[in-house]
Amino acid sequence: MKTKSMAYQTVPAAVALAVAAVGALSALPAAAQTRAALVQSVDEPGRNPYQETLSDLACRGTTVCSVNFATVPAGKRLVVTHISGYIDTAAGTPPNGFLSSSFGGSAYATVPFTGVRGPNGNLGTRYFINNEVLAYFGVGESPRATMQALGGDTASGGALVMISGYFVNVP
């Protein structure tokens, strides 16, 4: 009888030992797991959007209209992705234009754009500008948009220019 009660006593002990071993083995991988790090895309276009609109009405009667946009702040780089606006010309000759850097004239980030002829009115013929661009401006630079009436034509009503894009952090 003594052996029979010993057998009954070893079964619960063996089951308890097996449960403890399985629990210990399954706890190891859980303890070794790491939590996912929170990642933040600091250069995502939607995080630091940029848009600025300026006009030049003082260029009426001249051949060139230009606007100087705000200077890029410290620690940032400006990525310009779009330029739009208009220029009014007296004779209706298609204008020419550029987006350039204040540092290097039209040699840096120059993007020629073309106009689409709009209606004739009291201020002459309006040419609309609506172009995708990809231009980069660094710390201290000021984007400059210049539109030039060609063929002896003049700007009759001035110009309005809007640029948009986003800032990225400079490491």
Characterization of the model:
The chain has one helix and eight strands; from the N terminus they run αββββββββ. The chain is an alpha+beta fold and 171 residues long. It has a single domain, classed as Jelly Rolls, CATH 2.60.120. The strands form two sheets. Strands 1-8-3-6-5 form a five-stranded antiparallel sheet, with no helix packed on it. The protein has a three-stranded antiparallel sheet with strand order 2-7-4, with no helix packed on it. A hairpin with a 2-residue loop joins strand 5 and strand 6. The radius of gyration is 34 Å and the shape is elongated. About 3% of the residues have low confidence.
Helices and strands in order:
Elements: H1 2-32, E1 49-56, E2 64-68, E3 76-89, E4 96-101, E5 115-121, E6 124-137, E7 143-148, E8 155-169
